[in-house]
Design goal:
Elements: E1 2-6, H1 14-25, E2 29-35, E3 54-58, E4 63-67, H2 71-82, E5 89-96, H3 108-118, E6 123-128, H4 137-150, E7 160-166, E8 176-179, E9 187-195, E10 201-209, H5 219-224, E11 227-234, H6 243-248
Amino acid sequence: MNVFLTNDDGINARGLRELYKALKNRGHKVFAVAPARQQSGVSHSLTVFEPLRVAREAEDEFQGVGVYGTPVDCVKLGLGVLSDFKPDLVMSGINSGPNAGPDIFYSGTIAAAAEGANAGIPAMAISYGDPSENADMESVARKAVELAERIVWEKIRDRVVINVNFPACETGRWAGIKVCSQSASVWDNSYIEKRDPRGEPYWWLDGKLDPPIHGKDTDRHFLANNYISVTPLKFDYTAKEYLNALADMGLEEE
C-alpha cells in the first residue's frame, strides 16, 4: 500500500516513528507529513491567517516533512502539494493516550484521519492508552499495521474513519479485539488555579470522565477490560430523527 502517515504529537513523536518503521518493514511505501511541534487537542483547526512553512526530515531510517501548522494543515498541504504519490490509506498516530468516547471531538489525531477520509481516502486513527515514556509503541505499531492489512478497505466507504484504540495495559495482556460503538461519556471538567511569580492567576485544565464507563458495547468499556477497540466513525452531524420534528414546528418557509 501507499500510506500517507501523520499525527498530532509531532514529526519526532515515538508513535509516528514506530508506525513508520512497522509499515516499511511490511513493504509499504510511506510518506510522512506531521506537525513540526506538538499539536494535541487542536481538533479540526486550520491555519488561515499565517503562511505554512515546512522542515524536511532526512535520516538514515526516516524520511518525512514537518509542517509548522495543525494536523489538518499537514493532511491538506501533504495531499495537495507535498505528496509524490496517491495514497491508498491515511494513517494517523500512534497517539500517546486514548482517543475514545468524547476525546474524538478534541483530537488532532482523529481530525487528521477525518481530513483524509473527507478527501475520499480510506483512513485509520491509532491511539495507545499508555502515555508513558516506556510505552511499548513498537508492539502497538506492528499490531496496528496488521489490522490495517486485514481490513478490506474497498468495503469502507462514505468518508468513514476506522478509530483503533489500544488499552493502557502491557501489550502482552491484550484480551482481544472488539468492534464497538463510541462511548457516550462526557468530561466533567475542572480547572486548577495557580499563581505565577508575579502573583497573577493562571489555570490548568483537569477533569474526569463521568462514571460509570458507558455501555458494555462501547470503546471505553472494552478498553477498561484490556481489549483493543475498533470503532467506525462517520462525521455527519445531522440529527436526522429531528428533521421532521423541526419541519412540523412550521419553521420552513417558501
